Amino acid sequence: MEGEVRSLLLSAHRTSCLRKDEIGEATIINLIVRNYLRSNLVEQASKFVSKATFPENSPNSEWARHLYYLGRIKAVQLDYSGGISCLVQALRKAPQPPRALGFRAEVQKLSCLVQLLKGEIPERSSFFTQEKGMNSLMRPYFELVLSVRNGNVLDFQAVVQKHKEVFDADANTPLVLRLRHNVIKVGLRNINLAYSKISIDDICAKCGIQSRGDAEAIVAKAIRDGVIDAVIDHKEGYVRSKDIGDIYSTTEPQIAFRRRIDFCMQLHNDAIKAMKYPPKKGQDIEKMEKHLREQIDDADLIDELLNEDED
Known about the structure:
The structure is a single chain. By secondary structure, the protein is mainly alpha-helical. Helix content is 71%, strand content 4%. It has a three-stranded antiparallel β-sheet with strand order 1-3-2. Helix 4 runs antiparallel to helix 5, helix 7 runs antiparallel to helix 8 and helix 8 packs antiparallel against helix 10.
């Protein structure tokens, strides 16, 4: 069924391109991408978006939908920075409250997950607003954020099991399951900051890890990835944290500052592109007069050539 609908949409897209129907083209592109995502064909959706040019003069409603789909594609493909950028722009272009509550809630849910996958904690204002109906829709994701922030795997699994139907209905279950590694990382980071020396058994209890061997492997991977700065003593069975240096002596603040500058510059460029100016009447009249003079000159030239042939 989805394949038949997709064929009709692709045919309609070709027709709209030939007719230069920008509004129809934008609408059909969004429908095609939505069809791909409903069928879990993320790679095909990504290739289609890279080949199809979305009209810049499309309405904000279509732009919001397109940016939302782009954000979902990038999130699935592990491009979390690009995904959160698209989702922020989608929220900015979406209709303002109280309209489009469902769409803004979907964008906010996905944005919350992408922020968690990036290792960031969403702001509390994202979950508690004065808009009627939004708080109840965001409640499961608020509980998910709390479980990730605590860094306990058992609490995280309990929240996932409790709200499994909600995550399935939102098509966010694959992204939610990816958060397990982030939960463990947060728990290890909290332990590294709180304890200078801790046994592996205590790490298992605090993070909710079932096996001692799994805990050693997870801690070793976290040390290799730079999540924590510590040393494992396998004989004694404990983890010893190293002294934390001055972060301002590294290039990390510069990288974070550069990332914010890039985001602001992209926002400025998008705002410039979105600005529309009315055409200048004087220039239009001059163009029409010039075009008319060219036509008269061409007609005179043709008459002269015909007269020469008759002579």
